[in-house]
Design brief:
Number of strands: 9
Helix content: 10-25%
Largest sheet: 4 strands, antiparallel
Order of helices and strands: HEEEEEEEEE
Shape: rod-shaped
Strand content: 25-35%
Oligomer: single chain
Distance between the termini: 117 Å
Number of helices: 1
Length: 164
């Protein structure tokens, strides 16, 4: 008699396990009769495992992760975690926004380094080439005098570059 009762009990447990396995549910959420008896997922877990990572932290934002169900399924709702990385000024971008000083006759152009977010740093770098001297300035100064004026001629001066 005990043997038959034990076999009957095993059969009931087997049917229950098979039914549970066929529903595909591994969550302990609430049962939803409109969902063919499947258990609904509850996405209330805040795991920071890489499989739930939506976007990494950067200089202005914390890392963003998807919430998950206790069974491991990923939801669509997100949460932030960690800290902001801070700016890293390692980009050398050649635009007017980052120009510190334009190239002249003896110096290359100088630009500020920037962060990937667009923030301008304080460290600089040179780019390009110096423009070279252009002797197109007419400056009447002693240092440019080639011949002084006399009774028949005007004073003659060398033309100079804007750098002097």
């Amino acid at each position: 008699m005990k043997k038959k009762l034990f076999i009957a009990l095993l059969a009931i447990i087997s049917v229950f396990c098979l039914t549970f396995a066929l529903t595909g549910s591994s969550c302990n959420g609430t049962s939803d009769s409109g969902n063919n008896g499947h258990t609904t997922h509850v996405y209330d877990q805040k795991s920071t495992n890489v499989e739930y990572l939506k976007s990494e932290a950067d200089c202005t934002h914390k890392a963003v992760y998807y919430k998950s169900c206790e069974c491991g399924e990923k939801g669509t709702e997100t949460f932030e975690y960690g800290t902001v990385n801070g700016h890293t000024f390692n980009k050398e971008v050649i635009t007017e926004k980052y120009l510190k000083s334009a190239a002249d006759c003896i110096h290359k152009a100088v630009y500020y380094k920037s962060c990937e977010c667009g923030e301008k740093g304080t460290e600089t770098f040179e780019y390009g080439t110096a423009n070279g001297h252009t002797f197109n300035k007419e400056v009447a100064q002693e240092k440019y005098l080639t011949s002084a004026a006399d009774c028949t001629h005007k004073a003659v001066y060398y033309k100079s570059c804007e750098c002097g």
